[in-house]
């Protein structure tokens, strides 16, 4: 007899909540230790969504307005897997990002860069039965932030993924290969190991690239995996 | 070499902060309603504030809630949505407003019934990964034997929503300080 549960998250993958180089963590990390409790049916389940949540051009951020957005069109594709290598089908991915000039469609973003009336920067898609997804969008720009003197975020896409249980829930960021800002970004470097940081950098893929149309990038997302252990 | 050493398992993707500018991409119409208006059970409102280490309101967070329905079942079919799940954004004074149904009884990992509760999953700028907590109800007589409340020990009261009138509850999330909310590691 065995019981389904998720294995503990290994060290070296997730950032510490208290990461002083990212200054905003100072007042926003719990100071008491988290309290370890067993995984119950509440945590081992998650909401399921179907295609009724789609809006027009939900997976093509270049077609959500009257005109075409400015910037470099890209294709971003990949798989959602778990640590066992099994695909996670039918799960919801949400994407958000700034425009090609480095400005978000958000009232509080006052970076001195133009808004693009044809780019809002949000999308959602459900993975197919092999765990695959694809978005078409615009390559986001870098932008400054006030964490420290001359601080710039490298270009990134934000991804939100549900998985099959609330314990697989993940929000992360996808970066671009060869970006010189990666070496200076405290948020990227809160991921503690080279290996784990590399996994957040997409790979340019010529086979995803469409001739005379758009560069293609591949980005897989790996969620917590289960293990079956003998019951006591 | 055995088969298992040949098989490489993919490494986990690391978490990154939700940042401050997620509202457009993560918009969810009616997200503060965990169930449709005609769902069976006792309909309740839960509200509270999210507070940082100086006592200041956090006005750029997203809080998700996940719970069983009144019968103790998860994820009943609701077209275009998911029953039992809600997504709220905190407002200028750090407040969220959740409309839901009193959850039914769900078995714990040990097979014993747990007290009615709602799972909370909090994301915010300045938080590099989500933190989990739970909401319990002050007027429930099932709290005493609950395994999670027992594990929380002397801080268990931070997991319990106050009754604030008929069908109304209040539950604050305090990230640091004397009344720091208990956060859970599963």
Explain the overall architecture.
The complex is a heterodimer of chains A (232) and B (186). Chain A has 232 residues and is mainly beta. Chain A is built from two helices and 14 strands, in the order E-E-E-E-E-E-E-E-E-E-H-H-E-E-E-E. In chain A, strands 3, 6, 11, 12 and 13 form a five-stranded mixed sheet that branches. The radius of gyration of chain A is 19 Å and the shape is globular. The model of chain A has no long low-confidence stretch (mean pLDDT 96). Chain B has 186 residues and is mainly beta. Helix content of chain B is 5%, strand content 30%. Chain B is built from two helices and twelve strands. The longest helix of chain B has 6 residues. Chain B is globular. Chains A and B meet through strand 2, strand 4, strand 10, helix 2 and strand 13 of A and strand 4, strand 7, helix 2 and strand 12 of B.
Query: Which chains share the greatest interface?
Result: A-B, 80 and 71 residues
How many DSSP E strands of chain B? 12
Mean pLDDT of chain A: 96
Task: Count every beta strand of chain A, where a strand is a DSSP E run of 2 or more residues.
Answer: 14
Question: What is the alpha-carbon Rg of chain B in Å?
Answer: 18 Å
Shape of chain A: globular
Number of helices of chain A: 2
Report how far the terminal alpha carbons of chain B are from each other.
34 Å
Strand content of chain A: 25-35%
Q: What's the alpha carbon Rg of chain A, rounded to whole Å?
A: 19 Å
Shape of chain B: globular
Mean pLDDT of chain B: 93
Low-confidence parts of chain B: 1-6
State the helix count of chain B: 2
What is the strand content of chain B?
Answer: 25-35%
